[in-house]
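This part of the workshop introduces the protein records we will be handling. To make this concrete, we reproduce a full record directly below.
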Amino acid sequence: MKKKILFNGLGNRGWIGGLYYLKNILFSCMQSEAIKSRFDFVVLIDPKHADIFESFRGKADIRVYEGGSKLKLALYEMRLIWFGGVKYCYALELNKIGKLFAKRGIFWIPDFQHKNLPEFFSEEELAKKDANFLEVTSRSNPLVLSSEDAKCDLERFYPDHRCRVEVVHFVSYIEPEIRAVTPEVETAVREKFHLGRKYIYLPNQFWQHKNHLVAVQAIEILRRQGRLKEYDFVFTGNLEDYRNPAYIDRLKEIMQAPEVKDCIRLLGFVDRTEQLAIMKQACFIVQPSLCEGWGTVLEDAKVLDKTVLLSDIPVHREQKNEKCHLFPADSPKELARLMEKVSCMESAESIESGIANMYREAARYAKALERVFCR
């Protein structure tokens, strides 16, 4: 009987990006004959987020856990892991329950934002994150990082780490969702959000490290100079960051200025299908982040074969493809110039080519996962 790898989505319920990450890694595992010949896959998830893993039914054992008690959950996980043949718990969270199974854990750190941008965190958050990262890196378990840039940060900030490190890139497995974005869905999304004009899309949540400020300042420059008047600028995500309310207030002030308020479209939170439909129909994407691990937005855009304007940070230089254009992360003037330049460029798009490349890259990235699981 084959051993099992557990992907525990219950530990990431408060962070949808973590659930999509597990989905993407599971997809890469399924491209590896070496992994599939040795392991079966189990996904533990709550009812609210079970649809994220629906496309894996029949290929993985999807366990939907509906209980609310932490004690009952601990007992459930103990039975599943200790008596259910689980050898590895992927992206294990070292919470009270996770520590019970720490020896079987494969740890994952998405990035070292709290070290690179400590000014965006409270002292309490910094202390909590550092304590957690120290505990993870002091163990001999495998640690997966999503980029070579993150590996450099690990060596810089935790030089005495004991963990065995493997860099594993990932793709966005969004083929089922893209296939669901029919012309009828595209029309419905445009009508729902009143997207009647050409638009440029910024899909990130409004956390300060996502650096929306440089983008809205660039839009302000363009509008004051009478450029790109035929475009709207579409933002999704809730306009809030509990850690930095002053930053949000500054964004709102610029967005509500007479020069720009008629072209900025704040759509709030949208579901995954709507987000992909909006991205698919955008003229191009802007990703101005100050810090990323391995950006899912960029991976989504690659599958949709979109042009992306990226902040010039190390991980973006590592992750970009030929349809990406870099700009200085602190220069709204340069971003404005680049947006105008790219708006004049013709760029053919082929989603079928993007999907084919997604499969190729997932299989290539699975080689690193084989080193994690098949040693």
Observations:
- The chain has 15 helices and 13 strands.
- The CA atoms of residues 46 and 68 lie 10 Å apart.
